Amino acid sequence: MDTLRKIKKVWKSKPTIEGAGVHLKRAFGNHEVPMFDPFLLMDDFHSNYPPHYLKGFPWHPHRGIETITYVLHGRVEHGDSMGNKGVIGPGDLQWMTAGSGIIHQEMPLGDDEGLMWGFQLWANLPASHKMMPPRYRGIVAEEIPEVTMNGIKVKVIAGTAGGVQGPVRDVVADPEYLDVTMPEGSTFTHAIKRGYTVLAYVIDGEGYFDHERNAYEHDMVGTNYFDLERRCECTAENLILFEDGDVVSVTTQGKPVRFLLISGKPIGEPVAWYGPIVMNTQEELQVAFEEYQKGTFVK
């Protein structure tokens, strides 16, 4: 018999500043390792004030991870040490495997009205793949299939939903990455492999991510100690981490909801992390930064 996944914890993403001065909301990061293994970090960059994002993320190195950038509104210019360059537009995705080392830049441009909205997810690589050759995959919106099931729309970026497979394949973490939009009064159930890490991030609206609708059964990080009106529905900028099980079930009542549903196979290895480089040991980190200083970082 299938087991429904219960909510383990709920967070609210927190404002922070990264890059050369980009204002964004961090859903999770360094402090949550290894809770989200194989994922390391997730940022929500959402602003209609260009001075808060135009300085962008100038040239910087990555090693040992994959960075996944998904754009809802606006454009992001990018370039890297492999010679890739272009623009990620609305609905587009960039799945970059840094592997042994890559130097790149990402410069948000916004749209004609100044709106910029997207997400960046970092996925860790196991020791056996930390030094794999870098690779870049740019996927435009038209390449991402959308499945409609009982009025629920699912954009399948990675993994499978409704019998349709997404364009991102052959990834070490065996991930699923779905963009789900549910109308009011609907139920979405999705099977996910037991033992995999599963998270959801609410983009807009509100929904119930626990079939028992009990806000007191799980941790709500950031909730005021004296807040006696804990809500069991999750709203925009809420991050949900699920317990183990076979199936995720989400329902809506009087409002629609849109969320990202992401899962991956845990690595279970030590994490040595400093800035944009994630390895298994402090010694490996030191080597990476020494190579960067010497100009031998890119293999």
Automatic annotation (TrEMBL):
Coiled-coil annotated residue ranges, if any: none
CDD domains: cupin_pirin_C (cd02247), cupin_pirin_N (cd02909)
Top-rank taxon: Bacteria
Cofactor(s) annotated in UniProt: Fe cation
Protein residues bound to Fe cation: H60, H62, H104, E106
InterPro entries on file: Pirin, Pirin_C_dom, Pirin_N_dom, RmlC-like_jellyroll, RmlC_Cupin_sf
UniProt keyword terms in alphabetical order: Iron, Metal-binding
Cofactor note (record): Binds 1 Fe cation per subunit.
Pfam families: Pirin (PF02678), Pirin_C (PF05726)
Annotated GO MF terms: metal ion binding
All copies of domain Pirin N-terminal, residue ranges: 22-122
Residue ranges constituting the Pirin C-terminal domain according to the UniProt record: 177-297
PANTHER family in the record: PIRIN, PIRIN-RELATED
UniProt family annotation: Belongs to the pirin family.
Protein name according to UniProt: Pirin family protein
Species name: Geomonas paludis
